[in-house]
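Feature request, filed as a ticket because there's no other form

It would be nice if the structure record came with a short human-readable summary line next to the C-alpha cells. Right now we just get the raw output. Example of a typical job, pasted below so the devs can see what we mean:
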Amino acid sequence: MAETNDKPASNEAPIEQQLYAIRQKIQPRAVHGVFANWRIAMVLLTQALYYGLPWLTWDNRQAVLFDLAARKFYIFGLVFWPQDFIYLTGLLILSALALFLFTAVAGRLWCGYACPQTVYTEVFMWVENWIEGDHIARKKLDASPWNAAKLRKRGAKHFVWFAIALWTGFTFVGYFTPIRALAAEVASLSLGPWESFWILFYAFATWGNAGFMREQVCKYMCPYARFQSVMFDSDTLTVTYDSSRGEPRGPRGKKVDYKAAGLGTCVDCGVCVQVCPTGIDIRNGLQYECIGCAACIDGCDQIMDKMGYPRGLIRYTTENVVKGKYPDSGIVKHILRPRTIIYTLLLTLISGAFVYSLATRVPLRVDVVRDRVSLSKETDEGMIENVYRLQLINKDAQAHHYTVSAHGIEGLQAVSASGEGVSITAAPLETVDVPVSLIADPANLKGRSIEVTFSVQATDDPRIRDDVTTKFFNR
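Raw output as currently delivered:
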C-alpha cells in the first residue's frame, strides 16, 4: 500500500489568521446638521434627567430613591415594595416592546440618540475636541512624541473626563442612597466602603467605556448589534447610501457636469467615513456596526450643498425605496404594516393595563403566616383555635387604622392575644406584625382542613381593603 504524505511542502509558508482585528483608533470628524442637533438635544435631555432627578424632593423626601436597605422604592408620589415586583416586570415588557416598535419603524434610534454608551461617548468627544482640537489635530497629537504640550493636553483631557465620570458615579449611587446625605459624606470624607466602591466602579466604567473602548462596546459587547437584523424588514427606515444616485463615484470639480462625465453624485470625498463614530463606510451597505446616528447624512448633505447637488444621497430610507418599489413619499404609508400594528396594539394594551393597575393600586399588603408550633389546639371552652401572624404593610404616605375579620366558617371569630377584637394602627409606610387567633365551634367544622379568609379593612377609607385566604385546621 502506498503511503501518503500530508505534510505541507517545505516551500509553503504557514497561514496565520487573526481571530480578533487589531483596533484602529478612530478620531471622528465633527459634523453639523439636523441629526447632529437632535443628538445634542438628546444628550442634554437625558443628562438633565439623570443628574437632576435625585435632587428633586417630594413630600419632604427624595423624589426618586431606591432604598434597598429599607426595601422601599420611591418614585415621586408612588412607593413600591419588593412585593410589587410585578410592576418592574411590566415596565421591562413595555421597554422591550417599545424597542421592537422603534427598531421596526426606524432602526437603531435608541443606539444613535439615547443609549448611555452613545451619550457619554458624545460628551467625552466634546471635551476631547475642546482640549485637543479637531480630528486632524487629534491625529497629529496621537502621532507626535510625548512632550510637555502633549502631556499637558492629555492630562487636562483625562482630568475633565474623570471628573465627569466621578460625578456620574456619584449620581448613580445617589439613586440608592439619599443624595444630599451622600454629598455631606463626600464633603466630610466619611463615605462608607460600599458607597465608595460603587462611585469609583461606575466612574471607572464610564471613563473606560466612553473614553477608551467607545465603538468597541457597540461592535463587540452590545448584543443588540447582533440581533437587530431580525427586527428589520424591507420597509424599515435605515441610514442608506443610494447607489443609484451616487455611482459611479469619483472626484470632480464643482463646475463639472457629472452626468456628461458619466459620474454619479458621490464625489468620493470620504466625509461619510470620517464622521462615523464606528469607522464604517456606509456606501458598502447596511452593516451591524452602524448605530444609526446619521452623522454620515449630515456630512454628506454638507458636501452636496457645496457641490450644488440635491441632498439625500445618504438618507433615512427603506430597502424597498432603493429598489424602486415605491417612492420616498410612500414611506409614511408603509410604516403601518402588520408588524408595527401588532407592536403598537400590544404596547397600547399593556400600557393601559399598567396605568390602570397603578391608578387602582390598593396601598395595603397583608401576608398570613401560620403558627409553626401546632396546627390547632382546643381551648378550655372546647373551641378549636388556630394561631396566625399577620404581616401588614401600609404602603400609603399617611397613617391608617384597620380592623381584622375572618369568614369561611359559621361563627368564626378573629381575636387578638388579649382575647378581644383585632384592630391595627400603622404609621405611613410602616410594616406591622400582629398575632391573631381564629376560634371556631367544632360543631361547625366540616372536614380536617377548611379554607378561610382574613379581611383587613381601613376604617378611614373604604377603598383600602385586602383579603387573604388561608387554611383552618381541625384537630
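Something like this underneath would help us a lot:
The chain has a mean pLDDT of 90.
The chain has three domains: 34-228, 237-340, 364-473.
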